[in-house]
Design goal:
The complex is a heterodimer. By secondary structure, chain A is mainly alpha-helical. Helices cover 74% and strands 0% of the residues of chain A. Chain A has two domains: 27-181, Tetracycline Repressor, domain 2, CATH 1.10.357.140; 184-331. Chain A is flat, with a radius of gyration of 20 Å. Chain B is mainly α. The radius of gyration of chain B is 20 Å and the shape is rod-shaped. Chain B starts with 12 loop residues before the first helix and ends with a helix. The relative contact order of chain B is 0.08. Chains A and B meet through helix 4 and helix 7 of A and helix 1 of B.
Amino acid sequence: MNIQSPALEKGEAASETMAAFKGIGTADPSDYFALMKPRVMSLVVFTAWVGLIAAPVSVSLWKMITVVLCIAVGAGASGALNMWYDADIDAAMSRTKKRPVPRGVVRAETALTFGVIMSAFSVLALTMVSNYLAAGILAFTIFFYAVIYTMWLKRSTPQNIVIGGAAGAFPPMIGWVAATGTITLDAVVLFLIIFLWTPPHFWALALYKTGDYEKVGVPMMPNIRGAKSTRFQIFIYAILLAFICAVPVITGLGGMIYAVIAGIMNLGFLALSFKVWKSRAGEQADAADEASLYAVKSGDLAARNLFAFSIVYLFVIFGALAAESLMGGTL
Amino acid sequence: MSEEHPETYTPTAEELKARNRRNIAIALILVAFMVFVFLSIVMRTQGAA
């Protein structure tokens, strides 16, 4: 399926803004930092760190800091490449129109150059501080996010964030491989937790931002299959996520602390997903405050609550794994 | 644009300040990268010893 984006006409306004960009520009270093999607980067940094901590080998503090830094820069680089390619639709979406490229403070070509250079730096540096396999997975992750997801899947299929979610799921695996040098079952489980968490997380947001995505022709699940089907799929993914979260207890990656915390968090996730399934979220006009990620009309409250909880959920699940590993699995 | 050099562009004061801030940031990043490379080599060498 290939959807012709009406945003491309709206994007013309953005192109005009960008075309009006002359001279040496007034972009601050903070604008370049914004290109690296710091909010996404914080999640990447945390999960990569947990991958390093949870690995069954001791890693020096220096290596830990440098590996996480490399992964963070690689994630930021792919964010910049995403902003380069998506400049047209970003300009038309309320959530993204204030990004540096649509605002006209950074040229799209500059974002591309910045992204390519930072990608090269991050992969090279990770090779230096860890191993070729970890660096190779980082390079593949950047390629996957920038090319497979951004350039191909995002505008062509409602499964975009299901498959594209793999890019966000690799960081803990990279951390693990940087520490151990190999891909084990536990590394794959860490990957799968984020992979299965991504669809309910993004679809919850998409349910109350439907208009935004529809406006720019991005085929998110609620626009293509409808809100009802999306709400049901969210619940199915929540069940799958609960199952995969039990695997670390079986493999020994997680012990009692993890089992208790993961149990409580998954009950919460399942309950909120069930509420979304039974709600009418996504069946009315867009969010109350277009620029806000959290302001919603009452019918969309269940979706907003799941979206907010899903962020806390991932931090707590990975935090529990890290805490247990740091305590040496004494409980 | 000057008449003698139609291709040149005179930056505004704001643009010059922004460029200066960018230059400082690039300089700091380069210094940090040099420290990173140096320490990585030292750590690897010590690890191999």
